[in-house]
Amino acid sequence: MKVPLRDLGRGLWSLLSGMRVTLGQFFKPTVTVHYPHQALKMPPRFRGHIELVRDPETGKAICYACKLCERACPSDCITVEGVKLEGDKKKSVTEYRLDFTKCSLCGACVEACKSNAIRFSHEYNLAGRSKEQFIMDLFKRLEAEGK
Ligand code: SF4
Ligand code: SF4
Questions:
Q1: Domain total for the chain?
Q2: Has residue 96 been placed in a domain?
Q3: Residue 139 is assigned to a structural domain of this protein
Q4: How far apart are CA 103 and CA 110, in angstroms?
Q5: Which ligand 2 atom is nearest residue 110's CA?
Q6: Which residues, judged by CB distance below 6 Å to any ligand atom, belong to the binding site of ligand 1?
Q7: Whose CA is nearest to atom 6 of ligand 2?
């Protein structure tokens, strides 16, 4: 079978063009990670579900259950409970329930908190089989992290 020289040239050129793209990608830095064995580093402004912030001096939650965040949430995701311990001027949080199934990550709660007691976490790895797994007590989570 005779192959015209012009077709042969085109085929070769196409092959070389393809190889050029492949080799170009081969030497570029790797951008994929071996998920889930490797954790991703999220950018500072990433919004995961909210979390309670710990007071660096006392190690306890800064939150004093004033409920400003609860009232600010347009989706009724937050329920905060607290008690005033003897000798304390403010309440201490005892329960901080977040229904993440309803959260739109709007940030109204974070903005409403005058004490910077809540912030967006960098948690991106949430998966579950039931809705209940996304209803969390952020106070219990904070306590568990401290142990
Ligand atoms: S997180 Fe802030 S706004 Fe919400 S109850 Fe605690 S102190 Fe108040
Ligand atoms: S981010 Fe918005 S929707 Fe989510 S808990 Fe806060 S106020 Fe509610």
A1: 1
A2: yes
A3: yes
A4: 13
A5: 6
A6: 63-69, 80, 112-113, 115, 117-118
A7: 109
Alpha carbon nearest to ligand 2 atom 2, residue: 106
Task: Give CA separation, 65 vs 22, 25, 28, 92, in Å.
Answer: 58, 53, 51, 6
30 pLDDT band, cuts 50/70/90, is confident
- CATH code, domain carrying 114: 3.30.70.3270
Across all residues in the chain, what is the average pLDDT? Answer: 93
Q: Which two structure tokens, joined as six digits, stand for 6? A: 């012009």
| 36: in domain | no
Q: Which atom of ligand 2 is nearest to the CA of 112?
A: 7
* Type of residue found at 96: Y
Summarize pLDDT for 66-91 with one digit per residue, the tens: 999 999 999 999 999 999 999 899 99
Among protein residues, the one with the nearest Cα to ligand 1's atom 3 is: 113
The whole model's pTM is what? 0.80
Look up the domain containing 61 and give its range. 50-146
Residue 134 in domain: yes
C-alpha of residue 94 to centroid of ligand 1, in Å: 12
pLDDT at 1: 62
How many Cβ atoms sit within 10 Å of the Cβ of residue 91?
17
